[in-house]
Design brief:
The protein is mainly alpha-helical and 409 residues long. The protein has one domain (2-408). It has helices at residues 2-29, 32-53, 56-66, 73-88, 91-106, 110-135, 139-167, 171-193, 206-241, 243-256, 260-275, 280-314, 322-349, 351-376, 378-408. Helix 1 (2-29) runs parallel beside helix 7, helix 12 (280-314) packs antiparallel against helix 13 (322-349) and helix 13 runs parallel beside helix 15 (378-408). The two termini are 29 Å apart. The relative contact order is 0.12.
Length: 409
Amino acid sequence: MKKNILGVLISNFLGAGLGFAVNIILARFLSVEEFGRINLLSSLFLILYSLFEFNFSNATVIFVNKNKSKYSYNELIYYSNYLFKKYYRFSILFIMISLVIINYFYKLNFIENLMLVSNFYLFSIYKYVNTLHQATGEWKKYNIINILNNICKFIFTLISIIFVIYFSIDKYDSIIIGFILFPVVVLTICLIYSREYIKIINLKNSELYKNFLSIIIPLGISNIFMLISMRFDSLIIEYKLGSEQLGIYSAANTLALMFPLITNALRNVLVRQSSVSDETFLKKILNFQKKYWIYLILILIITIYIAPYLFNIMFGEKYDKSILVFQTLIIVYIGGVFFTPLESFFYTNSPKLIRNQKLIQMFIIVFGSVLLIDYLGIFGVAISIVCSRIYGWGNLMTSVYKYENKRII
């Protein structure tokens, strides 16, 4: 398991390192307002993808591994493809309604709308196909495809900048065009690399179908709550304070998001591992955490201390206002490294608990941000996020205590 976590962690760092480099380049190349607008589009795209995806990927991983004793991996994957194809037919109606709502609040131009639609369709297929490698434990292939997205994004960002320099076209529009084109390359390579899984069968088994629904529904609802919690900050900042303030906030978030690379790696491996393990797996997680919590505290203290120097080097003086927001957000992101393994266990073994937790966290962020943004600006939004995570951590530890006592009795 440690080898798998390390492999996914390395691929996440390689891929996100390029993604981070893209954000640094954009922050320096574009104005603060344009950088904020790019981040608004990225948030809107992730909201569309995550709302429609409904945690289909994690559900597929759990579904395949919980039923592999009765069916072969290929049968389960081909059946999952069948379910994905049926589900995907509703995407046109979803996109049409979503664009009407988005443009009512944010007034996107044609090229921005095109970016949202193309990224939604191409990225959702790419992520689902890579999930099939995760479900079967093919971590080498999974890691390669995982970093492919940001490799292509980095290359096309540089190409877009070159076009600006040599052809004197609008900087912002050139970047958007690059963001429209790179997912085409990503998906093409992904499908070629995963061609052995591109097959569809209908097993015509109502019990199997009910089993999939029992997994995806609580996970999907939890995903919506988590999505709103993670993306509401960008939406309300743009709507209430404008693109420039969103640019300041996005710079802080860009640097802070380096730590969720660790939590994502842990979640991707542990969701699969917990679906094929018994209850003693929770004890292994707890023992693992006891060894490393002190190191996380040290990393947190050091990161907060060196934050001003990091921002001056990476983003320049125009993003000085991002420092306090970063120092606030880093508390929850580093803390997530400790608590994500516990969350992964309950994702598989008690999805309703996670659903209820995400619902309350969503309300804390939404209402906290609405109440505080007029008084504290973007710092008020960051405080709301910290409060929601602290509640989640307390809920997880309480649930562990109850779960362990119940198991002992």
